[in-house]
Amino acid sequence: MKLPQLQKKPELKSCHDVTWEDNYSWIHQKDILDVLKDKEKLNTEVRHYLEQENQYTDQQLSDTKNIQKKLFDEIKGRIKLDDESLPYKDHSYEYWTKTTSEGNYSIKLRKKIGTNLIEEIWNGDKEKEKINAEYFGIGDLEVSNNDKFLAYSLDTKGSEYYTISIREIKTNKIITKKITETSGSILFSLDDKYIFYSKLDQNHRARKILRHKIGNFDKKDDLIFEEKSEAFTVSIGLSSDEKYYFISTSDHNTSEKYYFDVDEKNPKPKLIQKREKGIIYSVNSWNGFFYMHTNKNAEDFKIEKTDNKNLNDWKTFIPAKDGTLIGGLTFLKNWIIRSEVSNALGKIFVRNLETNTEEELIFSEEKVYDGGVSLIQKDKNTDFIHIAYSTPKTQSRVFLYNLKTKEKKLVKEQIIPSGHNPEDYIVERLECDSHDGRKIPVTIIRNKKTKIDGNAKLLLYGYGSYGNSLSPNFSSTKFSLIDRDIIWVTAHIRGGLERGMKWWKEGKLLNKKNTFKDYISVAKFLIEKKYSSKGKIIGMGGSAGGLLMGAVVNQSPELFLGIIMAVPFVDSLTTNLDHSLPLTVGEFDEFGNAKDNKEHFDYIYSYAPYHNIKKMDYPNILITTSLSDNRVLFDEPAKFTAKLRDFKTDNNLLLLKTEMNAGHGGKSGRDGAIEEIALDYAFVLKICKKI
Length: 691
What we know:
This protein is α+β, with helices and mostly antiparallel strands. About 20% of the residues lie in helices and about 35% in strands.
């Protein structure tokens, strides 16, 4: 089969007195958001190109069909298909979910407290059959406070436009009008007369909070709050003491909160603190006090409290710690639980409200782990919580923990049906110097049989944007590579929050190149320490991690055997210049505003993957995308692939796989997700000559 070719239709573009030619900009349709909702509106020439690329990918990976099937069976074999979550006690019922070996979606169950009668109130597979959709994305699934109604939101395209429905559980009848084009989140009012939801505007931005009266089929819903800035999006939640609704409006860098009483008939949200650029805060209410989690005069956050009636007199409750990220609070009658993160590792602390003393909860004897707590019931008058932890080599374990006696009982352990022995693996936490001397945390997991002599292949995973941290948790899928002598490494590079807000700030805006340099420094460090060798590393990242992959492969292709980019943000300059796209305006404080700021333009232009492709040899590359993705439009990876074919001077693989019925998160359903992982891993094994 010939190499797929996208027709060149040169277009001259200019901004800030810089002019460049784009041969493939024509594939971006002006009605692109309509295309995401209805793929029949896709330009037929573009569709043909994407189909050609899919056929070419299938042909080039035809020798991996058997290993894809084997990997699929392996990965699925590590999942306990017939499984149930731990129950959560509401006022009158216990609720939990289960999965089955036959199904792809979860089932929601409940049992009235004091009885043995189990009800099935939601079955994802049956619901999917009802609507006969190829894609089936569940946004939210909420039961009313009186346990009578089930509200759910569905996306049947992958475009993240969710439709909300409400039905009576007893009769299974829809009891109110369907609400379209929402963000998917649902909040019942405490009296169960209403739901609150956020509505998407024409640019797929949630900028309105509306209240819908249950039973209303005709009238318009009440507008509770509207955000005027196009950069901000809104959400609504309930306070821990169930006295207030809190409205949050924010971009990635700045936030503002409002509140109103739960019994207000005509809600008029009141401002808590006016937005200040760079100040992120959230508020909760408990036992007569507001608690604020804020980075104002506290780079890595602090927690303040004030009487609910006095919003001008905040006192420090948890002080700031330099380089340690202070997390939020979870409330019980006699306890407050909170978290901290430093050096890419988390800690949990418990405060006894009777003695006002605080101590750390120790989860594991292993040094590298990921832990968390969750409540077991709605009633806060309890000393019991669930504590859960996992490590890169040890599967998840959940304990019922008594905060008073400190006794813990194992109540759930992740079962690996095909077998798993943590002692077969070695986990290491190392640090390496970046180009400017900053210490980058590196998490390594390998089979203990894998030798550290420079001969091993190594998968280096990275992200580094939006303040998202990569946790050192357990993932059973990775062992399909690790058991084949491939070392898995996570680079905790700047742009995340692993070392506090400074770690994020040093990896965004005009510091974005630190993210790429950190990743390259980690790769070189691993080569120096004989974990692998030049040309034996496989880079992997998705979305903004795809931007990372595109930037580093343009800068240092010789380090890599292969690159996997999932839904990659590779035409970042073009997207940043288009303020009509869903995410662009809200990300000015993450990547900059190239259209209105020449310094930002020059900086983004200097690293944007699509604009920095060169005439040189590139490693093997697999790019995956989805037709209905509204976060990173499919035309970004399509353009990147077409241009790369023009420029690269090697005979290595360049493959583009477009899911024609999926969104940013890929295929829906358990099997669909496993198939995508199996494809990625088969590509890895092919280029590593392990098939």
